[in-house]
Write a structure and sequence with these properties.
Length: 436
Amino acid sequence: MKIGVIGPETTVEIIKKVVERDIPDVQIAYCCTEFYEESGALAETLQKRRDIDAILFSGPTNYAYALHRVFPSIPWTYLPHSRTAALRAFLEAIAIHGSDLSAISVDRYDPKFLEETLDIAGIRGAKFYQAPYSPEEIAFEKKLQDFHRDCYRRGLVNICFTSMEHIREPLLAEGIPCVRTFPAEETIREQIYHLQIQDFVSQENQGKLAIIAIRFDYIFDDEKDLFIREWEKMQYQNEFKEKIYAVAQRMEAAVFENSMDQFSIVTTRSMLMNGFLKTGEHGNLMQFGQRGPAYKVWVGMGVGNTMLEAKSRSAMAINHAIADRSGSSYLVEDENRVTASIGFGSIEDRSLAYFARRIGASPATLERLRQVLRDGDTMTSEELAARLGITARSANRIIARLEDAGCITTVGKRSAGKGRPARVIKITLPARLAQA
C-alpha cells in the first residue's frame, strides 16, 4: 500500500521516522508544504496518481483546506490532536517558559479537550481563550497570530498554544511565549493503520474480518499522594497502550483507541486464530494486564463478514468477559450464541506469577520456596540457598525483594565459628500464596 503524506516539513519528518521504523509494509510519498492553503492542490495531484492508495494529512488544518477544494476519490484521514502531544506541550510550557498554565490562548485545539488533559495531570482551574476563526477565512494564519499576540499583550494569558508552525515562530521572535504541538507517534500509527483497514476492507479476497475488543482497569487508590497516584495511572495506561500496539504490529493489524482504557484491534479471522490465540499473544497480554490484584483486563473477540458484524460480536464477547469474573476471554462468531471461553490460567497461577516477578524469581523458584517453607520458615540466607538449589547471591537478592515486600522478619543471629554471625530470618509469604 502507498500513502501520500501532506504537511509541513518538520511534521512530515516525524511521520517518516515512525513509518520507516514501525510500519515497513507501507510506502510513503511525502509532499511537504509550509502553507496550508496549498494542501488542496497537493491532494488533487495525489488523487490523479495511479500508485497512491490513500492520503494522510499532518493535521486538521491542512485537511480542512483540502476538503473545501476537492472531493476525495480515495481514502483520506488526518492526524487528530492527542493527549500525549498536549501533555508534552504543557511540560514544555512549564519547563522552558515558566508558565503556571493558569491562562492559555489556543487556536485549533478544543479548550474542553485541553482542560480534560490538564485534569488528568492534576492541574485544574486553567482559563482558555480560543481564536474565533476557521481555516476557510481569508488571512487565517495572520488572524491567529494577531489573536495570540493580543491575548498576551493585554495580560489575559501567560502562554500561547498552537499546532501550526507559522504561528509559533513569529510570536517567539517577538518574545511572546508560545508552544507548538507535534503529532504523537501512537496517533501516526493509528491513522495509518486506519487507512490500511479501509484498503483492506475494499479487497474481497481477504476472508472474514475480526475485531479484538480490549478493556483494562486498575486500582491505585491506596496511594495517599495524589500526584504519585495520578502518575502511576498514566504510567500504566502508557505501558498497556504500548503493549497493545506491539501486539497489533506483530499481527500486522490496526489499532483504534476508543478511550484511554478501551482499544480495538482490527484483523482477519485467520490472524486472530493463528497470530493472536495460537502464538500466545493473547495469554501474554492477559498476564500483563492481570499482573496483580489491582489490575484487570477483559478481552472480547468478534468475527463477521463485515466490519459492523465483527464489531457487534466483539462487543457481545467483551460484555460476557466482564460479566464472567474468572478472567476468561470470549470469542463470538454467531450472534445467537457465544462460541468460546478462553482462559489463561487460574487466579492462583496468576497470583503466583505476579509475586514471582515482584521478588525477581521465576514461578518455579517461588513454587520451590513454598515447598521449602512447609518444612520450616526460619533460616539463614545460606540455608535458603541450599534448600532452593541456587547460589548465595541469588538467595540474597530474593531475600532483599521479600524484605521490600514485607515478608521478612529478623529473629536473631547464628554464629558458625569464625566470621560475623549470620542473620536468622523468618519468611512469611502472603496468605493466599502460602495456602494455595
